[in-house]
Amino acid sequence: MEQNFKKIALVGKHNSTSISGYMLRLATFLQDKGYEVILSTPTADFCHLTDLPCAPLAEIADRIDLAIVMGGDGTMLNIARSLVDHRVPLIGVNQGRLGFLADVSVDTMFTTLDEMLAGQYVEENRIMLDCSLERDGDLQFHMYAFNDIVVSKGSLGRLIEFEVYIDNKFVYSQRADGLVLASPTGSTAYALSAGGPILHPTLDAFVLAPICPHTLSARPIAVNGHSEIEVNLIHADDARVHFDGQDHRDMVVGDRVVVQRARHNVRLLQPMDHNYYDTLRQKLHWGEKL
Prior knowledge:
Elements: E1 7-12, H1 19-32, E2 36-40, H2 41-47, E3 54-55, H3 57-60, E4 66-71, H4 73-83, E5 90-94, E6 104-105, H5 109-117, E7 121-126, E8 129-135, E9 138-145, E10 148-153, E11 160-166, E12 169-176, E13 178-182, H6 190-193, E14 205-211, E15 221-224, E16 229-235, E17 239-243, E18 247-251, E19 256-261, E20 266-271, H7 276-284
Parallel strand pairs: 1-2, 1-4, 2-3, 4-5, 5-6
Antiparallel strand pairs: 7-20, 8-9, 8-19, 10-13, 10-17, 11-12, 11-16, 13-14, 14-15, 16-19, 17-18
């Protein structure tokens, strides 16, 4: 069968001591199959594999056909944000613990990847969130988030007050520890802990889940995935906006956070036998004694 993927980037979790051996074996496996393999520079440096072709991910993003990400869901979140505008499909390989995004196990990766690279895969298009932080009408910061954007209290630990608008329509004002704005992919992350619903990752929707609201009537809601959501900070001694729990910016009263779907979706490739409900059952211990 003709190869759909000719140039493949390998990206690994940089603080995992066990990844070097797996990465070398994977690179050798792919090269033996005739694929052109390029390691991201940080991965090559960390794994001491600088004798293999390597380059910064930003420099090769427009030239690769596929990125295989070895690590966990956190690594996948980071790489998805980096590559979403380049429309590069992703395959996630986990190192022993099943992930919501890293679905291929290192124990079976050669067999599974061989099948997927031959065309036996399912492609899911996942929503990426696009967030702007505005202050006095000026753009302060722009960031993508694959899981969620969280407006929350800072280190002082005091409630914040904010207003929420959806498509320029007032929804509510709220005093709470914060608000989680999640994609369907992120509905099983922080939003779930805040009492939000689980959305199938291919749904066209967002979740808004208040964090410890100071009212019993506040409930999470799901809204259309083409909505523009605006969060205005009304009062706070200390507040921040977080992106996938991997980056954040401080906020001041009057700041405006605007969230909408990004122009491009994340292209996530899954094995043919992938079952999202199997993942939910295993990760959330459904049907098991706790």
